């Protein structure tokens, strides 16, 4: 039997196994679909309708004008309190996330040379949310300053104005950056899950020994296992890209071909990682445990999907270089939002290629066709 | 009865810890992940790479830019000379933002007309962009105030005095590290329990267990206790590391914390055993664990707030025990919350735990395959 035929037979055997066990098909197609839709809607860093307490000790024309800024903004759900103590109690009970406090002498102090202090207390437990809230309140404050100046017939006297231009995502919609990243996280999972247990299962059931006595070579076994799962994984990948494009309306600025190439290389790396776990563990229990630990959490935290890679300490950033999802997330975010930026895409494609080859070479090295 | 349970528990512990590789899997990764994630998972920005496109070059502009050079949040990458360089620097991700001063910056500023500081920022990561803009804005507000004082211009009629509670310096590590207690505890408990019944089913020993004098309740407790034990030890270690290594203040008492932890373990073990009792093979058990774990982590409020989710997804998170425990750990660590304040978080975990454990026990006998 020629090498070609042996490989074809192995691919056929694995494909049949996949088709007969619907769970693989479910992992490849159903899971990415459900996860992406669930997370695409659920994961958001855009704070909207934040409940804030407004404490106005002495309501007057000026305080009302200030407070009305909160009602008009869809970032806030303002709640009126009549004493700072009641508002602080609400903050402690998590009924509001911040307190804006206008003291009784606000109207007088506005006319004073030093200006009136506006107290802003934020719940700092979630520091990120607190900082965003602070930014939103600053915006309300600034708009009030402008309106106040206009009402007195003068221009607002600021030495330097901030003019911001946000490229690639002018509406700063966090979904546009999270959804491309989610594709990276989800496909890491799918790739590893698909393959992590396949070789371990053959060892445990003893069918690996049956394969060994056939003339098939070890690399043919591995390729035979890889090819059908690769096809499945690519199918899942295309599905997620379609969901991003048509359900979440994330604009795809770059070319589909680069996305496909990146996906193919990434699938190679992810499946290689899964196979490596499977070959080394030789036992489904351990393979499963390792797959949970080394694939999902690093792809979630160390890929640049939510947490910024630049801000990590150098020692930690070094570790992110061995997380394949990191490269895919970078390519996805750039391809979707910015376009074909070769300086970003090429190094990441190269890294994915190296990772894929590395994992597959390791799998080859670790698999032997003999018993222990 | 106690003897039965004890015997089964010891057998379970042995089954988990017998294999050297599974021992390593239980101890090594949580420790490594705590350290790595504790440093990596942060929304705080530092070393934000930026470039300057200063078409003016005047003294006031230089004074403004010097504030950015002196800040640990920003890391100066170089000067740009034209629009093309600016576009390239941002496209290639060489810098996150460019500070741009127009040619008339100095003249307008000296005349008392509003001068513009233009910030061009890479919005590919919208959260990073917003946070960086907030930093820039705060620095500009400081600059404006100082400039107004020094040049005798009127300060704004009102100013904000910001006072964050519970986390005075807004360190996002204080938010994330207590979250990691919940994250890793859930992962470890699920790993220990989700495959425990499925493994015996596959090996055929579960049927043998069912025909022994052990009652289903005893099997259930015997299978649950190892997860309880391992989960408590791992969580204690992580809590210790959070306080001692990451220096997150533990302001509340240990009692409300451990009460929450045990209820959380109860619900995690219940879910794990239910998944395990439902599956016939280990592969199905693993799949089930993954299918629960991934959404449970991402939709828990660990990284992105639950309040930002659409209402439908928010309702879904009520089924997620991690959602409640995150409030408990963060509450006890940062706010010094007591048991009374945390009661709304305790009872749902207890309900989830009891319901899933009861279901698991029922499934032991009734799931036929």
Could you describe the 3D structure shown?
The complex is a heterodimer of chains A (372) and B (369). The radius of gyration of chain A is 28 Å and the shape is elongated. By secondary structure, chain A is α/β, with parallel strands linked by helices. Chain A has a 4-stranded mixed beta sheet with strand order 2-1-3-4, with helices on both faces. The two termini of chain A are 28 Å apart. Chain A has 15 helices and 5 strands. Chain A folds into 2 domains: 235 residues, no CATH class; 102 residues, abc type-2 transporter like fold (3-Layer(aba) Sandwich). With 369 residues, chain B is of the alpha/beta class. The mean pLDDT of chain B is 88. Helix content of chain B is 67%, strand content 9%. Chain B folds into 2 domains: 236 residues, no CATH class; 103 residues, abc type-2 transporter like fold, CATH 3.40.1710. Chains A and B meet through helix 2, helix 5, strand 4, helix 6 and strand 5 of A and helix 2, strand 4, helix 6, strand 5 and helix 7 of B.
